[in-house]
Amino acid sequence: LVGGPGITSGRNYGRDYAVFETATRNTGSHLVGKNLANPCATLFAAVDMLKHLGLRDHAYLINDAVEKTLNEDRVHTQDLGGMATTTDVVDNVVREVERHTTVPLDNRPHVGARA
């Protein structure tokens, strides 16, 4: 078992295009706007895309940060038996990435932020 639809990414490769997404298309539309969705499948899809584009160092930086967030820091959303919000998970991943890079990540939009 891999942890459910909130964890797994999906990859689709064609002759001309590649698509990276969550593994299932119904991963929580009822959670929109509630700050409860598990962002890990989306983050892992981004990791897959970065690998595909040849940006392996970037991919592994994010992958390792997500895995540390889940496995060592145990920051889990409700679907994984935890109480963390989407923002809690993303903030923890960002902290882990920042620990291993000199690029500041403090200008990112927050959940619910309006453009």
TrEMBL record:
GO BP terms in the entry: isocitrate metabolic process; tricarboxylic acid cycle
Cited InterPro entries: IsoPropMal-DH-like_dom
Gene3D superfamilies: Isopropylmalate Dehydrogenase
Keyword tags: Tricarboxylic acid cycle
GO cellular component, one term: mitochondrion
Record domain Isopropylmalate dehydrogenase-like: where: 1-93
Family: Belongs to the isocitrate and isopropylmalate dehydrogenases family.
Protein name (Swiss-Prot/TrEMBL): Isopropylmalate dehydrogenase-like domain-containing protein
Lineage of origin: Eukaryota, Metazoa, Ecdysozoa, Arthropoda, Chelicerata
